[in-house]
Amino acid sequence: MVKHAPVLLSEALEALAPQDEGRFLDCTFGGGGHSRALLESSDGVEVTSFDCDPEAIERSKELQSQFGERFRFVDANFVTLDEFADGPYDGVLFDLGLSSFQLGEAKKGFSFRLDAPIDMRFDPRVGISAAEFLETCNKSSLIRAVREYGEERRWKRVVNAILEARGTGKLSHTISAARLVEKAIGGPPSRIHPATRTFQGIRIAINSELESLALALPQAFKQLRIGGVLVVISFHSLEDRITKRFFRRMAGRPESRNDFRSMQERKCFGEMLKTKVVKPSLGEVKRNPRSRSARLRAFRKLSEAEL
């Protein structure tokens, strides 16, 4: 059985500060760790959880049985919050990236340590698999996945190797695809597998992860009541950048160095709980190495905004 360890759990609970009769929205149920902690914090807390992984439905049944009407599970991608959420909520949480269940099950095709057809879809009921993407996408889409989303420095070698491998069967399974990328990158052995960045970029591309986050954050903000807190735990610099810029914009601050709007053009609808990103402790990283890249940001809503 796969063991799931929720990342930055105490830090997320500190930011959300659940009180009796509080209502919370967990946009990424995963293994249910954050949802469970919220429900256990007080007998009056209610949680609505979203997840588009069909196997999360089964995992959610334990919480449904234990907490009854205080827990509600929604089988949907968080990009559809406006359609299914029933706010206002006292807190909204996004724990982005992969759960241990997705990494630990070979059939999902996320991990190159387990041989299986390379799929990588969070929801296998929609879209195309990673194998189909690698075989059919145009070169510019492949470059975007490997260079921009994967942030692979030797992206040209990887892209050319993938294009040359089309039709050979090497792109259909996780281990053969990882070996192809490893050979293309070359160089001395490293602590992180050479295919890690490329696999990450492909996963982000086929699940439209960055676009979904950019669309979901304004929806999540609207679902908050005044005084409510929005918490985002990200594992990739591009996800964190989207979150940081959204929070700064909603706080009436410059989004980036290229934001030259005047003070009159900016509007403040809330405040960042901490200006610096929250990272896992050394102890947590030691207990759960997958947490090492986690970053938490939190924002308190102080007024409504037209988004």
Can you walk through the features of this model?
This protein has 307 residues and is an alpha/beta fold. Helix content is 41%, strand content 14%. The protein is built from 13 helices and 7 strands. A 7-stranded mixed β-sheet has the order 3-2-1-4-5-7-6, sandwiched between helices. Helix 2 links the parallel strand 1 and strand 2 (46-51). The longest helix has 15 residues, at 209-223. The chain is globular and about 55 Å long. The mean pLDDT is 92.
- Please give the CATH architecture of the largest domain: 3-Layer(aba) Sandwich
pLDDT average, as an integer? 92
- CATH hierarchy, class of the largest domain: Alpha Beta
**Helical content band:** 40-55%
Secondary-structure element pattern, one letter each: HEHEHEHEHHHHHHHEHEHE
Number of helices: 13
Oligomer: single chain
Kindly identify the CATH topology of the largest domain. Answer: Rossmann fold
Task: Tell me the total number of β-strands.
Answer: 7
Q: Which overall shape is indicated by the principal axes computed on the Cα atoms?
A: globular
Strand content: 5-15%
Secondary structure topology:
Elements: H1 9-16, E1 23-26, H2 33-41, E2 46-51, H3 56-67, E3 71-75, H4 81-84, E4 89-95, H5 100-104, H6 130-136, H7 139-149, H8 155-165, H9 174-185, H10 196-206, H11 209-223, E5 224-234, H12 237-250, E6 270-272, H13 282-287, E7 295-301
Parallel strand pairs: 1-2, 1-4, 2-3, 4-5
Antiparallel strand pairs: 5-7, 6-7
